[in-house]
Amino acid sequence: MFRFFSIVFLLCCFFVQIDNGFCQNDHPTFSSSDQPINITSKRFSAKNFSGGKEVTFEGSVRVQQGDLVLTCDRLIIMYDEKMQGTEQNGSNKKTVNKELQTASGIKSITASGNVKMTQNDRMAVAGKAVFDNTKRTITLTEGPPRLWQGPDVLAAQTIVIYLDENRSELLGGDDSLITAIINPVKSKKDKEK
Prior knowledge:
About 15% of the residues lie in helices and about 50% in strands. With about 190 residues, the chain is mostly beta strands.
């Protein structure tokens, strides 16, 4: 069970690090690393629309911060620019809506197509991974999504990670069950024999 939560922790850290890496703000960040986030892709586009903007990286997308790596076919970051004005000492200072303060306006991050996240001996794969900042969840779907740590594997039709609740759900489907392969840890005495 501990191994499962460390894999889930990997996913949470990754999306929160991306979340904090794209915006500058006056709020404390959740990123556990001060290392730069490096993003490469074949194409980049950004567009503004009423109430927000969308940033898209496409084609061989690779995001890396330290030893944490995400690869996918497409990465879309949705920003919600709803700001509310507050008067302080005669100045009009804008602040981010309370529900978006931890993300500086990031509403969601969607990685799709051959999604793979790795860090050391941990790996997650899925067809799609969605960070929803309003719900504070990461949802892995399509493929089916799988999580590995060393030789241990978890698979389900849908994996939902609740960032603020320290919990996660693995959901099977009508035609699929949740699969877990957990290998016992050998003690030093067993290894020496």
